[in-house]
Amino acid sequence: MRAYNFNAGPAALPYEVLQRAQAELPDYEGSGMSIMEMSHRSKAYELVHERAKEQLRSLLGVAEETHILFLQGGASMQFGMVPMNFLHPEQVACYVQSGNWSNKAFKEAKLVGDARLVAASDTRPLTAPDLRGLELPANTAYLHVTSNETIEGLRLGSLPDTGNTPIVCDMSSDILSRSIDASRYGLIYAGAQKNLGPSGVTVVIVKPEMLSKANQTLPSMLRYEVHAKGNSLYNTPPTFAIYLMSLVLDWVTQQGGLPAISARNTRKAGLIYQAIDDSDGFYTGLVAKPDRSDMNITFGLADELLEPAFLSASVQAGFVGLKGHRELGHFRASTYNAVPEEHCQALADFMRDFMRQHG
Ligand SMILES: Cc1ncc(COP(=O)(O)O)c(C=O)c1O
User: Fold this and answer.
1) Of the residues 53, 194, 207, 268, which is catalytic?
2) Cα-to-centroid distance, 294 and ligand 1 (Å)
3) 101 is catalytic
4) Could you please report the per-residue DSSP string of 38-89?
């Protein structure tokens, strides 16, 4: 039986993907070897690489001329690479601080140049900043946002109109969870280990006009342009992670693509939010209702002294990964694409049972 896996990342992968990877592992398409034993310049691997790119392009609606890169170093590497490439002297990089991860991105940018906070979340309850009417200095290099704060479980609302100023988005924890208008972003980045596949590969989607403005003096591995010119094969890419991602992308397509996935994600998260909202204050959501994430559901118990008992009962009942992030405490259920609806129902049922016993 599959565990009730609510891990925040690395996180649940679709069971069908694991089975397919297992079947294909020792002898990939009659080659007598696994995909991870092949050259990254072999025909077989090239097909995997191109297919993953094309699947992402079609699922997210990315324009033909926009580059899709497979890099390493995680989303954390992007925190530094973005300002190193795009924040020039005399310019300012504007950051929206919606939670812990955007704050980390901001701090890294400050190491590189003039980075400023232009909007921030309110606390208690956590409320996403309203970005409508946001004004940016004329010398803004880019506006950085984080579409989903994984630790808080907070989703950023609509994007501001920034005119010609590009928007850079950390989409690590909600990429592929719903449809987006990819044309609104100059650059999107996402570590794979939530909705895309295993850890080890970071997807970067970047418009050509961004590259033409990038710093030319950085070491090669830090330059998006070098990776774009080399089709993410400038050096050895994480071939197995990209292969697994391509299987996940096939699976997403088979599920009906992003419209179907998004409807299911809203239903799944709704089951757990309903258990919170029906509890008469026994459970409280940590984020204001309009800003709740469908990917990471954070909640606490009104009686905090009961929280250790909730955690140990959840572990006993087979739930994995519910302990909240160390920065925030309480509980977090991450309900990424691959978490089955029945597992979310099981968690909602468990929460109601626990409340009956302790309420
Ligand atoms: C929104 C967000 N940004 C950045 C990161 C950091 O990612 P990585 O560990 O791949 O560097 C995470 C990790 O969970 C995340 O959730």
Assistant:
1) 194
2) 17
3) yes
4) S-TTSHHHHHHHHHHHHHHHHHHT--TTSEEEEESSHHHHHHHHHHHHH--T
pLDDT in tens, 273-312: 999 999 999 999 999 999 999 999 999 999 999 999 999 9
What's the 356 CA to ligand 1 centre distance in angstroms? 36
Q: What share of the chain is helix, strand, coil (3-state, %, to 5)?
A: 40, 20, 40
**What tens digit of pLDDT does each residue of 331-353 get?**
999 999 999 999 999 999 999 99
Domain with CATH 3.90.1150.10 in the chain: 256-358
Q: What is the distance in A from the centroid of ligand 1 to the CA of 100? A: 10
Q: In degrees rounded to 5, what are phi and psi of residue 200?
A: 120, -20
Single out the catalytic residue among 53, 114, 170, 251. 170
Pairing of strands 187-191, 202-206: antiparallel
9 CA closest ligand 1 atom index: 14
Active-site annotation holds for 194: yes
- How far is 314 from 134, CA to CA, in rounded Å? 43
CATH number for the segment(s) 256-358: 3.90.1150.10
Q: Whose CA is nearest to atom 1 of ligand 1?
A: 172
Taking CA atoms, 301 is separated from 98, 138, 201, 282, 293, in Å, by 23, 46, 36, 6, 19
pLDDT digits (tens, 9 = 90+) for 7-66: 999 999 999 999 999 999 999 999 999 999 999 999 999 999 999 999 999 999 999 999
C-alpha span between 60 and 182 (Å, rounded): 7
DSSP letters, 249-276, are: HHHHHHTTHHHHHHHHHHHHHHHHHHHH
CATH topology of domain 16-254: Aspartate Aminotransferase; domain 2 (3.40.640)
